Amino acid sequence: MGHRLSLERIAAAMGQIDPVFLNTPQFRAEALEAVLGCRLIVKVETLNPIRSFKGRGASLTLSKVEPGATLVCASAGNFGQAMAYAARSRGVKQIIYASVNANPLKIARMRALGAEVRLHGEDFDAAKVEAKRFAAEAGLPLIEDSLEVATAEGAGTIGLELTRWPEPIDELLVSLGNGALITGIGRWVKAHSPNTKVTAVSAKGAPAMVESWRSGRIVEYDSIDTIADGIGVRIPVPEAVKDMDGTVDDALLVSDESTIAAMKLLHEHVGLIVEPSGAVGIAAILENPERFRDRLVATVLCGSNLTPEQIKQWLH
What we know:
The chain is of the alpha/beta class. The chain contains 14 helices and nine strands.
């Protein structure tokens, strides 16, 4: 049986995604290498209008939607911003469900981009349940991140760009939330650089996706406990867990303390503000220095949406 994600569609997506999200910087972060003990490539997905990689998948998804449509989605913040941005450019109305505890900066940005934002539930998954209920009741299409294949295939273009690196990457560390980022990247990389180890990184306080993938059955949690809101999943998308088969080689769970240390290092040595979900790859190196010593390691800095209060708390 074939994989749900198509290599041909990932390649074609380079011509369908808004160019503002494509061909992002990727470079050796030499100032960080002395601290981490490995050769490090950072792929910077934060220098765009929504400050995250989600614009790729949203742009690809909306490229197939007729102007004048109304769509529903749920988001912890970054996917919602991406959908709002793409919907505005396509003349589509976007209704977004987010948690009452969602990052206020992300909520404000979604609204500024023209989306109708409805706050419901204590976390992202509770908001998603309500979004599904409303969409079914109203007869409107629900775009579910990681379930909608275009969200992952759009993210797969990051893998396409990474495989342009002139030497083989030993290990690629990718944040694992609902799975679109790593399944898209992993699908392309395992096909074009099979010796590159693709490793998912999640938060110790939100291990549902990792445990589901490792056990081969869906593991759900009643609550999560992590500062990494963008990867704070407690109810996995079964299709996305299955998409990890053959595209992901390993998974690591990191502490919030290591993630904050990683954010500080990126700020100090690379000059970038990176949100917790985008820094977990660096946290994984901090927690496993011998595993990565002297190897060529790449990680995707996939988001930078922090409130001024969070910047003050975590980066100073």
